[in-house]
Amino acid sequence: MPGPLASVARMERFWRGTGVALGKHWKVVVVVLVAITVLLGIGLTRSEFATGEDSYLNPDSRIALDNVVFQDNFGGETVILLFTATDDDVDVTALVDPGNVDTLRELEEDLRTVDDVRSVITPYTSLLFSDELLKGPGQSALLTAPGRDEAGADVRNADTTVSLERLGAVPAEDQVLGNPAWNDLLVFDNSIVEDEDNARIRKSLASTFPDQEGPDGELVIGEVAVGGVVLEGNIDLDSQSAATEEILAILADVELDGFELTVTGSPVYLKEINDYLQGGFLTLGAIALVVMAVVLALMFRVRWRLLPLLAVLVGVVWTFSLLGWIGIDLSLVTISGLPILIGLGIDFAIQVHNRVEEEVVLDQEVHPMAETLANLAPALLAATFAGFVSFLALRLSKVPMIRDFGVLLAIGVVLLVIVGIVLPTAVLGIREWKQRTDTRGESLVERIVVKLGSLPTKAGLGLLIASVFLFVGGILVEGRTEIESDPIEWIDQGSEVVQDVRFLEDETGFATTLGILVESNNTFDQDVIDLIWGFTLDAEERDEVVSSSSLVNTMGKIILIDGATPIPPTEDDVVGAAEVAPADIERALVSEDG
User: Fold this and answer.
1) Which burial class, exposed, middle or buried, applies to 60 when counting CB atoms under 10 A from its CB (0-12, 13-18, 19+)?
2) Would the pTM of this model clear 0.85, i.e. be above it?
3) Would you say 335 and 48 are in contact if contact means Cβ atoms under 8 Å apart?
4) Which 3-state string (H, E, C) describes 145-187?
């Protein structure tokens, strides 16, 4: 007998023997399946959920590496605190009235006790910094700036004179937070002298007290303040969620006279995503199984029609358990593979189940299991191999969660075909041995297939044209598909978390931050300062940028006078600012090694 034919014969004998053995030794098969399920199931407890940057950034990319360095030095995600005046007659200076000052001070102390909190910066901290600058480095910078700006010297001298007059009008003993006159001096620039009702926020405090645009396009000043709680950098999602939850609990009971507090930011909605992943994962699976059960009950006209569902359930548990063992995290993308796996598994198990029924009822085979596997198993394995290779091709992606998605599907398709062959064959084998099936109903799907198969030959042209039309149409509209990369769009758009983010956008004009990492042997060198100042001015000319924060920006904005040349601060100015900066602000702007 020729070689290829001999191989085919041996393969056929193997599958026939396997079919008989699975049915004959069904008890052993069940015990083995249960043992494997329990052993693999331990892997589910090892599974972790991932929604951070490492899920969609190539860890070897420059962006990812820079992000790790940035977070090591300056912390990670920031919980944003939005303080909104509840009355038009209240402005942000009321945040540092005596009662509110005590509340903010206690709040900061409580927040600093939370594990994985790096720094806490409320408007109170920002104004403490402003207070120190106004009494020291800020004054020096204003007095020396005219000598470096010949063209704008007169304008600068005039503005400095007004500043010194305002400073002198408040006695030294009254220069404390809580005193209304001192509060006004800290928060508002010299425009308050000309028009108290339309005074502008100091440029150096724009990131803490952003201006707003009212519904009629008018400028609304001094009704909103922003703070933040910076978490430690490069921490895992569970630690981040735990810290965020504790922060939210502390902030839930905060009451400030004249202000409402809204808590938002990426840690808050990433926690929402994490909670959804852990709770929604089971919900998604349950819904998919229920839908599939209904479909099987209505359209699969065989005995024990829900058996394929059991095979799928076992295969899916094996797949996600194995992911836990090999250390692949669950993300929004990998979890989206659940319905795909259920669909694949149902297809495998239904084909085996349906073929067994046909062999029993239609062909009256003595050994229906053997005949089923001999004819069906090689085709299923060939299809599985093609799917396995195709799914592994996703490993070429530079996005980690897409690569993990490919591994999930590759593992899943193999495990599902194994369970889809073994479990139905063993269960149906003992069933047919004890109580053989004698009739078989015709399902709706079968009637449709028979109907389509009986169409006249001339209908083929129409079907061909329709298929070409659908193919071309799909290519044409494919370009309209947009990839949603904004995490805020991944969660329920009606949730309070999303509403708070939208409220932050409306009130301040921003919803996220961009970290800029500057590395130098001496970050206080004048050349570095000039570079950062030039970058700051260029960046803030962009419509997308609301404000910026840095020591250079703070000192540069103090000496940024309308009508004068926008000169950078000096090295002494920036060093002086660093020396008086509160510890939380310093940690947010300068690394420990400078």
Assistant:
1) exposed
2) no
3) no
4) HHHHCCCCHHHHHHHHHHHHHHHHCCCHHHCCCCCHHHHHHHH
